[in-house]
Amino acid sequence: MIVDCALYRDGSRVQGDHDLQAMRARVQQPGDFVWVGLYEPDDEEIAQVADVFDLHPLAVEDAVQAHQRPKLERFGDMVFLVIKTLWYVDADDAVETGEIAMFVGEDFVVSVRHGQGTELHTARDALETDHQVLGHGPGGVLYAVIDRVVDEYLDVVDELVVDVDEIESSVFSTDRTNDSARIYVLKRELAEVRRAVLPLREPVVRLASGDVPAVPESATPFFRDVSDHLARAAETVDSLDGLLSSAFDAHLAQISVQQNDDMRKISAGAALVVVPTLIAGIYGMNFRHMPELGWTYGYPFALVLMAAVAVGLWVLFKKSGWL
Amino acid sequence: MIVDCALYRDGSRVQGDHDLQAMRARVQQPGDFVWVGLYEPDDEEIAQVADVFDLHPLAVEDAVQAHQRPKLERFGDMVFLVIKTLWYVDADDAVETGEIAMFVGEDFVVSVRHGQGTELHTARDALETDHQVLGHGPGGVLYAVIDRVVDEYLDVVDELVVDVDEIESSVFSTDRTNDSARIYVLKRELAEVRRAVLPLREPVVRLASGDVPAVPESATPFFRDVSDHLARAAETVDSLDGLLSSAFDAHLAQISVQQNDDMRKISAGAALVVVPTLIAGIYGMNFRHMPELGWTYGYPFALVLMAAVAVGLWVLFKKSGWL
Amino acid sequence: MIVDCALYRDGSRVQGDHDLQAMRARVQQPGDFVWVGLYEPDDEEIAQVADVFDLHPLAVEDAVQAHQRPKLERFGDMVFLVIKTLWYVDADDAVETGEIAMFVGEDFVVSVRHGQGTELHTARDALETDHQVLGHGPGGVLYAVIDRVVDEYLDVVDELVVDVDEIESSVFSTDRTNDSARIYVLKRELAEVRRAVLPLREPVVRLASGDVPAVPESATPFFRDVSDHLARAAETVDSLDGLLSSAFDAHLAQISVQQNDDMRKISAGAALVVVPTLIAGIYGMNFRHMPELGWTYGYPFALVLMAAVAVGLWVLFKKSGWL
Amino acid sequence: MIVDCALYRDGSRVQGDHDLQAMRARVQQPGDFVWVGLYEPDDEEIAQVADVFDLHPLAVEDAVQAHQRPKLERFGDMVFLVIKTLWYVDADDAVETGEIAMFVGEDFVVSVRHGQGTELHTARDALETDHQVLGHGPGGVLYAVIDRVVDEYLDVVDELVVDVDEIESSVFSTDRTNDSARIYVLKRELAEVRRAVLPLREPVVRLASGDVPAVPESATPFFRDVSDHLARAAETVDSLDGLLSSAFDAHLAQISVQQNDDMRKISAGAALVVVPTLIAGIYGMNFRHMPELGWTYGYPFALVLMAAVAVGLWVLFKKSGWL
Amino acid sequence: MIVDCALYRDGSRVQGDHDLQAMRARVQQPGDFVWVGLYEPDDEEIAQVADVFDLHPLAVEDAVQAHQRPKLERFGDMVFLVIKTLWYVDADDAVETGEIAMFVGEDFVVSVRHGQGTELHTARDALETDHQVLGHGPGGVLYAVIDRVVDEYLDVVDELVVDVDEIESSVFSTDRTNDSARIYVLKRELAEVRRAVLPLREPVVRLASGDVPAVPESATPFFRDVSDHLARAAETVDSLDGLLSSAFDAHLAQISVQQNDDMRKISAGAALVVVPTLIAGIYGMNFRHMPELGWTYGYPFALVLMAAVAVGLWVLFKKSGWL
């Protein structure tokens, strides 16, 4: 689906039209460029776009198929970028991933989006009001999109920080919690984020270094800023992963400690029953000469003895921390 | 065994013949080349091929013996590549490995295949219909073979993803599963894949960089694409390995939690027997003055008391989660 | 809030005034410079400063928002540095973090501080008495601030060394301690410190190498010294983290050993009750011909037998280390 | 002990003699060289050799003392190589290490061997029949020795692969095996191999790159081949080490699972005794009105009841997998 | 304290005197140099030395304060080296650390020692008899000191190897040992050694590469030798650390196995008591018709039955390995 297609000149939107061929023909002055936005295009649409802008077949293939790695490729003067989008689904505490592929030439940008995250329509609206960034031409569009995507990485990471905090509380609560499944799932989410963030670092560093044709020298500080945000996301993810590993270890220790506590509680409880049973056994012996058996209050005495021993043991275990 | 031997000119198959000497003699124009395909050749066959194409003895030795590391070697103008093939055997959830060695000269390609995986006959058929790639000459054949092999890596990796998902479900199921053996076996399979994938990355990067004589500049984007697929395979394998380690840890935690649950269940069950035993012991004492013993309904009373205590304990343990 | 603003010439404070525009105008000779110190400035204040010193908007944005990564950026002749401040709060054994951003131009320094740590007022006072360092100009101020911050890193690290020593004693004490929560928290603090220290290493190395415009060649040994302190902090943090991991492992082992000891103690204790119960059961049997039952001292004999067996077992278990 | 000393010319052995001085004097044409083979020489022998071939004292010291690290040193035109030898002792499943030091000059090779492994006499015999390799001069000898040593690394690694397979079977067998000691010992053997293999990689890469004076350009493919074998050995060792770690984890899990199984078996067994004891206790109560006590078949009834309960429990536990 | 101060010429000691100013004045010919040895100097002493040899204040500060990192700094023509000394205290199996700082100029060496280890007096004596090394001038002194220190590293490492061997024996002995504390302490010692060894590698490599002014080209093989020893120390430390981790894991496994063994022993022991108790309970039942009760030998029969059952169980458990 062609979402939008517009011509930009001197940092402003000039005209929008879905007839790509006509739009490209209107590119006349240096600095003019067309931005075509596609969402999960079918084969015909992408073929038409590839034809109009003369895109390399290998890049087109990558743009159509989702599940690519983030990467930056140069085909002559054209730059091809694949970037993963991430968003956090509150309902099931999960991180979902989509993809944006961008073809950036001297006078055009083609963006191809897959999945629901990081919708580009508002990004385009915001950019159209920011004439300074838009004035950098196709490189400005590239920056705006990457910046938007990376900002959403940071949002996702912030959600994960909250999740790790929750797990932490759960692990160290006195409740009998089984946190290993949750830790596992969160580790998998972190791995998901890492797969989006890490391979993007090298492309962004290259963009920030200024040796990519689409990015004018004046735009490099913007990409350095993105690179910095990306580094922050990566560091936080690594740090969370380390914390989760430690939290898991602590969880294991808690299980062991709890088992030990339980074992001691059980043993103490057993003692409260077993010792009176011994007393009952003693007074159940059949010796002919057992003075207590003849006492009027022998039976209450035995019961009191059992109770006293049980209470005594209970106090003892309570004091020593076994109960 | 010589599987096939053909002369290619301008991206098309010209002629096929098993007489290597004659075939090579037919190479006349620049761009002509012969592709000889061997399958587990015996000494005589390989000696003949080595003689016709003047192959370096060390490379020939490596091509004959299986169990080499993936590598790319230059011998003057000739390039020698060893690549491992992988395939997944559904029957026993195992990854099997074979090997392809390729000698790529200016006007010839010799491929030597070992093991059952990644059969090259269909690869040759497919290539013969793709005149664009075949037009790149021996480098195009090299690409076609590597691309085919790496695509099968991705297939194998996809199967392993499924296996890891199964283990995940098994670990976190409430069933009493013993997953450590399966995790171990899968880790060994991943190590197998890693041994094929990792050493291949450097050769493919060199091919993509264009400083290998057999690969024309125009063919480098194809190898960059392969390099990207390889990186994806490597990343997925690493990620799976990390997940398996986490899954194993979670499995250990599950075992501990289960042991604790079992211990508490056992203890609660024991209490249901031991406390009535104490009561029976009490009424088995031989005191002369025990009013209950003389009651008409003393015996039923005692039985009801035991049952009541047992039921009471059962409710208590049920409520506290011990049963 | 503008904390202080002063003009420096030849290594001495010349004049202080909060009117930035006027102050900058007074910069006349080469070597003159203005140092403006801000504390958590509001938007208006920072806008005014940015205007007077012509600061890059991206850097200004980073300076206002806290939670940046430590970094060194060049914008033309100006250098922009972000550095994290750390301080140790005794009350809750926690490491807190703040931030200092510095803009260093040829004739000015603007420092922006966030959070309570590493207050710069005393750093300025100290620097104003050290004409040698101040004589290096803006680079000298940069050094003075970084040096102060890094010295406080070392203080924080020293506190953490003490905490690790305490944990060590606790883990290996014979008391029944639950150290996993404390180890976890300390690991999190170390991760906090690492996030401040590690990304700063590369900026300081660049400052020490002398290829940063604000730092004259003669000042590089000072930055090498800072780099060295930073390396020391990083090494100690790594070393503490490794020790904590080992301590955690040892803690797990202690738990297991203790559980084993407890189990054996419990079993030995149980034996002291269960064996006499068997004896009581034997003399509770209803055989007609049991000579002991008719003995005058049969009952005392049975009690003594029980006591003797219990004592005997106690001695046995004591000797074998089970009690 | 001087094992052998011979003059080589044009790839063939010309003459053998133990008088080193005389032998060296016979070196007349370019390409002539002497190969002296020493086995654990005493001080006098090595001093004589050092004198004849003008060896650097530091290298001589290293060659005499065993327990050096593998390394390649250049002293002017001379190359000094230390390489560790490995061999597998079947009797005690252990890897033993020796050492070979080689001095390689323009017209001589001095090899000094320590320990029993990788005896060089047969290597010399084999080399003397391989005129092509021998024709490369001292560099050919160097290759032949390193190749022989590295081939034995691969043999040792193959033995260790077998050992790991055995441990694997043992860990996952249903027998109650205690594999931790064996895993530990094997890990130590692997560390031994790694200490021989890893430091050798850099020297061999340097030899293969052709910037070592003793190695002519034409001989570099041979060293690349050795480098490849070395890489294979290193990868296999790493892979085995990882497998052993996983196997150890699995072993720990097996122990836990077994403990759990045992605990449940014990508990089920206990129930078979405890519940009948309760029944016996009930019929041991002294109530005046207990109809069963008067039944003619009361006693057999009680015994049958006990047996029935025990059998019932046994069936129950069997079904639920506890027995 | 000034320990010694002497003038050296042509590899020999010429004159010793504690008047530094005078000594330095006696340096006349190229190659002459003064070596001043200080032990934990007070402020006045170091100030005097700094004044005579024109030492950089930052280096002087580092030399006075202990607890620096090993490092090599260049201040113009002067080289400043900090190196940690290690020694093993047998009494408490601990590694202690000291420090040596050296200022090496064209015509002087100043060594400043802290702590008890690696006393330099004997090093100076030995050097004064080794005219060859001393002939390399200040660089020779530098070598002699570093070589001495690194040799002591190797001694310390050898002691640690012995400690690890002891722990190994203890872990795998059948005794009930608690090795986790010892393993922990040894890991801490290894970390201590690593902190001395690792940061020294880069300085020594720089010294061996010959781009340090104080070290003449001819002296570089000596530093390569030191570098090699350092690498050996580092490798051994890493290897020991890995072994200790494995040993700790094995220790954990042993604890678990032992707990399992104990649990089974306890259960078997309990069965020997519980089953006879059931028999006693049966003959304690009050049925009117129990033929055994009337037998003359009923009581002995019951006792024998109990004993027989106990013996039977004992044999059974013995056979199945539970006792």
UniProtKB/TrEMBL annotation, chains A, B, C, D, E:
Q: What is its main location?
A: membrane
Q: Which domain of life is it from?
A: Bacteria
Keywords annotated in UniProt: Cell membrane, Ion transport, Magnesium, Membrane, Transmembrane, Transmembrane helix, Transport
Q: Where in the cell is it found?
A: Cell membrane; Membrane
Gene3D superfamilies per the UniProt record, alphabetical: CorA soluble domain-like, Magnesium transport protein CorA, transmembrane region
Instruction: List all membrane-crossing ranges.
Output: 266-285, 297-317
Q: Does the keyword tRNA-binding apply?
A: no
The cross-references to CDD domains, in alphabetical order and at most eight, read: MtCorA-like (cd12830)
- Membrane topology, as annotated: Multi-pass membrane protein
The record's annotation in NCBIfam families points to:
corA
Role summary: Mediates influx of magnesium ions.
The record ties this protein, via PANTHER family, to: CORA FAMILY METAL ION TRANSPORTER (EUROFUNG)
Q: Which family does it belong to?
A: Belongs to the CorA metal ion transporter (MIT) (TC 1.A.35) family.
* Protein name, entry field: Magnesium transport protein CorA
